[in-house]
Structure formats: structure tokens, C-alpha cells
Amino acid sequence: MRARRLSELVELMQPAPVEVLGDDAVVGPDVVLDNRHVTPGALFVAIPGERVDGHDFAPDAAQAGAAAVLGTRLTEASLPHLLVEESVSGLSWLARGIVREARAGGMRSLGVTGSSGKTSTKDLLAQVLEAEGPTVAPVGSQNNEIGVPLTACRVDDDTRFLVSEMGARGVGHIEWLTSLVGLDVGVVLNVGAAHVGEFGGVAQTARAKAEIISGLTADGWAVLNADSPACRDMASLTSARLAWFGEGGLPRGEMQVFARDVACNESSQPRFTLMARRGEMEEQAPVELQVIGRHQVSNALAAAAAALAVGMDIATVAERLSAAQPRSSWRMELMRLREDRLVLNDAYNANPESMAAALRTASELAMVQRQRHPGARLIAVLGDMLELGSMTTAHHTAMGRLAADLEVDELLAVGEHAPVLAAAAVEAGTRARVATREEAAELRLEAGDVLLVKGSRGIGLEQVAAAVAENVGEEQS
Q1: How many angstroms separate the CA atoms of 363 and 462, rounded?
Q2: Rounded CA gap, 263 and 367, in Å?
């Protein structure tokens, strides 16, 4: 946000009840939750947590240069305070006010949701929009009740586009997030099994994801995946204009965005012809993605459709997609190590759809590697996929079988559900064993080997990828 006086923030946060204690200080531009990230003039938001209370760190924030504290009580920091009933709610009201003001000035607000691919698509979309003007997008995966408003608070007078990534744990969550940022474009990537244990079923998941488009006006755009039956069914839930994206047959809508002549290079980076159709007019432009994996084509099409919806031309969209780099760590991150050894680090999170995509990408990389190194192995370290409820055993069994179908040479399963995963792989004909994270970190790769590391965030398998890469470096030294 631009620097403002506390009295201005109170006005922005209406109708939330806010009390100012202390001087009418000027705060901004930064809004921070962590005292270690405080910049001069920052507004420090004190949020109570399960283990620590942000209010206790307000004096440290003051020492680092914060100008004021937003919280639920007076702290020991010698700073002006904005007191609210609940800290996260207060942050949300601030975000609402900032975005409402910016949209009145012409800023466009875009939101992305889906069971998988949200962060990758958000990163692609942000880099495309940056060609048109200043763009604010989440850092990493800030997609919850704290991350969405915190991202929105970075909007200032120059911002042309706000991109929000929206996750959910149940019905009503995305509806609330959209109330903060007032979307002009809502994107639904897919509906899968991610968090199905918390949602209560795929139908409930679809209902929750559809909230990103249900509040759009007739002037807005609903960008939907035509390759997902659940997304197709959402068309009736919005009054917005429809932009379909996909690789199969696309329903009628005001815009259709699709890919032709898809192929991947030896690093599994896709290239294709981007197609856009509006009525009888059809345009095309070549795209060569820098991100890894065949599944990124769908993400790129979603980003393209959203960018075209806000008025960008197809040539610029294709050019920016081709230049876009991975921005978020541990998501299809390919490390090329000594003697052509590859580590595909996709350890940030996992669900059945994303794990299947990662396995297929690793298999494609291994096929190329074996042409140069006939003895090259495909090794997978796979961790638990969490929050799958009653479908947990079935999905881990399916991943073990898929690993065998894709000719994984050795599978190390880590986590509570590792025995199920490993047993299914062994039964299907692949070498597999249960391992601890520490045991997996001791892997030694040989020339040409491909290692996939994939699991839910709580398993912490990014440590395995880093350790194996370090092992290769130690061998070299």
C-alpha cells in the first residue's frame, strides 16, 4: 500500500470497529506479520498463533523500524496501535479497503483456484501480466485467510493487476476470500482429490471451487477447464462471460483457448501453438515453456485465457509465457548435477493428480537419459499424500501401481502410508521399500540417473532432494 496515516487506514477499514491509540502516525508502505521482515515505516500485524503470539514480538518490530501495530490489545511496543476485535479479520478489512480503492481507480483483480497447479499457474499469469503493467501476486503459496489479504496489502497507486491464489479447506472459504479482492476474472483449473478428506467428497470440493466464479458480475470472466467435467458443470453457476481452455473439445463461450501440436523437449519442457478463438476470429502464436512437465500446458492455457480476458494480445501473451521462469521453490524444480544426474524436486506438496503428473514427467526424463546412459535408473522418493480421508489407501495403492507402470526402477516410500505405497509397487513388479527421510537422504545417484522427490508438505522431502544433490557435490570434491 502507499504510505498513509492511521486515520486513513481506519477509514479504509470501515465498517470494521477500529480504535487508534497513540499519534496519527504515517505507516507503510509495507504490511508485515513477522518482525524479522519489518521495514522502516511498516505496519506490524500481531497475530496470535498456536505456539507464539505476535503481540509478544511487537517491541522487536518497533526496534526494527515499524511505525505502528495492528492487533487485539496494547503491547509493550512504544508505537501507535490500531486495535481490532480479531487480528486476521482486521488485516482482511484493511485488504478490502485497499483493493476496493484500487479497483475504483481501474486495477483489475484476478483469482486462481483448483485442486492442483494453483501456484504454478499464478506464477505464469503474473509474469504475463507484468508485460502490461505493475502486478502484485503472492510470494510462494500464500493462498489462505492470511496470505490472500497480506498479498492484497501490497497493492499501491501504480498497481494494474492483482493476482490472488485461493485455496480452501471447505465450502465457504473461497467465497470469503473473493469478498476481500472483488474479482474481475476467476480461474478454476481442475477439481481433484486434494483435501477430499476435509471437504467430504469431490462434489463438495467442486462446490467450494465454484465459489470463485459465482460472485462474478456479467462484465467479469469465468475461466474454466473444459477438460475437467466438474469445471464444465460450473458454467451454469455464474453470470460472467465464459472463457474455456483445454486440449479436448471446448464448449461454446465468448472465448476458447487451446493448444495444438504439443511436444516436449529432452528436459520435458512443453512447446505448442497457442490458439484463441472468439466467435469466427481465430488467432495463434508459438509458445515454448521454460517450466517442466507436460501438465504445465494446461496451466499455461489457463494463464493465457485470463490474460486475454483482461485485454492482452495473443502475441504478447505467448512471448511472456515463453519467457516465464519458475518462481516458487520445490515445484517441478529440475537440478542437473555432475555426470548428467537429474533431481526433480517437486516436494512442496502432493495430491493424487500432482503426484501422477510428477511421475509421468520423471519417466519422460528417464527415457531421454537412457538414450545417453543405457544403465540410467529412475528412482522415486514418494511421501504421504495427506488429507485424503477414506480414499487414502486407494490413492496410495494407485500411485504404487502407477510407479510400476512407468518403470520406476526403485521406489522409496516415506511416511505413515509408506507400507501401502511400497506394497502396491512391489506387487506390480517394481523394487520398493519403506524408508525414513534420513535413509532416503543417503541415496547415491549414478551417471544418468533420474531422482523424483515428491510428497505432501508435512513430510519435508525437500530435505532429501537437497541432501542427494549435496552427496553428488561431495563425490565431485
Answers
A1: 20
A2: 15
Nearest Cα residue to 459 out of 348, 356, 330: 348
Nearest C-alpha neighbor of 35 from the set 26, 45, 27 = 45
195/169 Cα distance (integer angstroms): 7
Q: Is the pTM of this model over 0.85?
A: yes
Confidence of residue 432 (pLDDT cuts 50, 70, 90): very high
The CA-CA-CA angle for residues 65, 69, 74, to 5°, reads 125
Element (H, E) at 340: none
CATH number of 106-323: 3.40.1190.10
Cβ atoms of 369 and 475 closer than 8 Å? no
The 3-state DSSP class for residue 33 equals coil
Annotated binding site for ATP: 114-120
Question: Where is the binding site, in residues?
Answer: 114-120
Architecture of domain 4-85: 3-Layer(aba) Sandwich (3.40)
Q: What's the CATH superfamily of 333-472?
A: Mur ligase, C-terminal domain (3.90.190.20)
**CA-based nearest residue to 164, from 232, 90, 96, 101:** 96
